[in-house]
Amino acid sequence: MCPDPCPFAETFHCHGGASGLREQAGTCVSDSAENARCAESILDLLSRTTAHRNRLTANTHWFRQAMTDAGFQIRSGEHLIVPIVLGDARLAHRMARDLLAAGIYVVGFSFPVVPRDQARIRVQISAAHEPEDLERAVAAFVEVVRVHGVIARL
Fold first, then answer.
1. For the packed helices 32-48 and 51-69, what is the interaxial angle rounded to 10 degrees?
2. Do the Cβ atoms of 36 and 22 come closer than 8 Å?
3. Cβ–Cβ under 8 Å, residues 35 and 11
4. What CATH architecture does domain 52-153 belong to?
5. What is the mean pLDDT of each run of 10 residues along the chain (154 residues)?
6. pTM for the full predicted model
7. Most buried pick, 7, 8, 80, 120, via CB within 10 A?
8. What pLDDT does 152 receive?
9. Is 117 in contact with 123 (CB distance < 8 Å)?
10. Which phi and psi angles does 120 have, rounded to 5°?
11. Omega prior to 131 cis, within 30 of 0
12. Selection from 148, 49, 38, 137 nearest residue 90 by Cα
C-alpha cells in the first residue's frame, strides 16, 4: 500500500493524471517513483469498489444538510469541499483559528482568493470521517459563531 500521508494530489497534478503517470514518473521534484506507486495503489483500490466514494458522498451530503439546518450559508455544489460563506474576512479567519483550536481543521479564505465580501471557511470532508466526527464539527461551528456573536446573522 502507499505511504501515509499519500501525496496523491501532488502526483496527479505533477503527472497530468492517470494516463501520463507511468510515462512521466521521473519529472516530479519529489520522489516520483513512490508517488506513482501510491497513485497506482489508489487507482487499483478505486477500480475494485465504490465504497469509499459512496461514503464520501454520504458524509458530504450529511454535513451540508446539518450545517444548512444549523443556519449556515453553504455554497451549492456536489463535491467534498464545503464552503461556509460568512462574508466578513476577519470573521472567517478568526473563526477558522478558533475551530482549529477546537480540533477542527478548516481554512479561512478571503479576497483576493475569493470575491470581496464573500469570505468563507473551507471544510474538506473525507470518507474516513465517522458520523461522530461530522457531528462534532457541526457543534464546534455552532459554538464558535455563538462566541463571535454572529448567530443572528446566519
1. 90
2. yes
3. yes
4. Alpha-Beta Complex (3.90)
5. 46 48 49 74 78 90 94 84 92 95 94 91 93 96 91 51
6. 0.69
7. 120
8. 45
9. no
10. -150, 170
11. no
12. 148
